[in-house]
UniProtKB/TrEMBL annotation:
<dbReference type="GO" id="GO:0005737">
    <property type="term" value="C:cytoplasm"/>
</dbReference>
<protein>
    <recommendedName>
        <fullName>Trafficking protein particle complex subunit 2</fullName>
    </recommendedName>
</protein>
<dbReference type="Pfam" id="PF04628">
    <property type="entry name" value="Sedlin_N"/>
</dbReference>
<dbReference type="InterPro" id="IPR011012">
    <property type="entry name" value="Longin-like_dom_sf"/>
</dbReference>
<dbReference type="GO" id="GO:0006888">
    <property type="term" value="P:endoplasmic reticulum to Golgi vesicle-mediated transport"/>
</dbReference>
<dbReference type="InterPro" id="IPR006722">
    <property type="entry name" value="Sedlin"/>
</dbReference>
Amino acid sequence: MASTACFVIVSKNDIPIYDAEVGSAPKKEDQAYQHQFILHAALDVVQDLAWATSAMFLKSVDRFNDLVVSVYVTAGHTRFMLLHDSRSEDGIKSFFQEIFLNPLYLPGSRITSSHFNTKVRALARKYL
């Protein structure tokens, strides 16, 4: 079964520093824009929830049709956001946790590492 997933990392200043369509469903250009719009719209909900709880993994914070927005917020308020149609909460949490084990970057800059991009896509195939 093909899955839909879009992964975005947003800095504490609301600047996207990484984004990728990582699902196995066929990609359409207008769909990528819609996914980015859904994730951007969820930022306000994420901000409110991040201040209301001490949990870092916020699970499902928003929905759009059959798509769910799951978020992991770091101590530095960087948001790891995943728009997906997966039902596996454990898989989503494992995906986020393995992403954190990747190399550091210069704060505020875009992540352009091809190694990081390859790792994100491999983890998406594994867990989503």
